[in-house]
Amino acid sequence: AVVSTQSTGAAWQFYRNTTLGQCLEDSLDEMVQGQQITPAAKQQVLEQFDKAMSYSLSQRVRNKVNFKGRIKVYRYCDNVWTFLMTNTEFRDSTEGFHAERVKIVACDGGKQQENLKT
Question: pLDDT tens digits, the chain, 118 residues: what are they?
């Protein structure tokens, strides 16, 4: 979901649910508990992580993947699409794979990119 409305604009926090994001947050929690950093510093690091992930993926990833499956549920709220799909086939230029259940969350990063460069 979209959160954090600061002077730099809203930042997407989707990437905090990735393995990398969860490991970062766990490490930061340990540092806060050990009084090595403040909770405010932890929040600043996480916000920078959100911006860096979004910017890097938008600028560096050029692969395309096609997918086909059955949409069970879809939602559009606050410029965020959420699709719950079953029996989905994914294909790129070299290989493919099948997934029984998939959740896809997609957002319009176009407006966010201006804020993410800072």
Answer: 333 334 333 446 778 888 999 999 999 999 999 999 999 999 999 999 988 888 888 888 888 889 999 999 999 988 888 999 999 999 988 899 999 999 998 877 665 545 545 4
Q: What residues have CB less than 8 Å from 28, skipping those under 6 apart?
A: 37, 42, 45, 46
- pTM for this entry: 0.61
Report the chain's C-alpha Rg in angstroms: 17
Max Cα-Cα span within the chain: 49
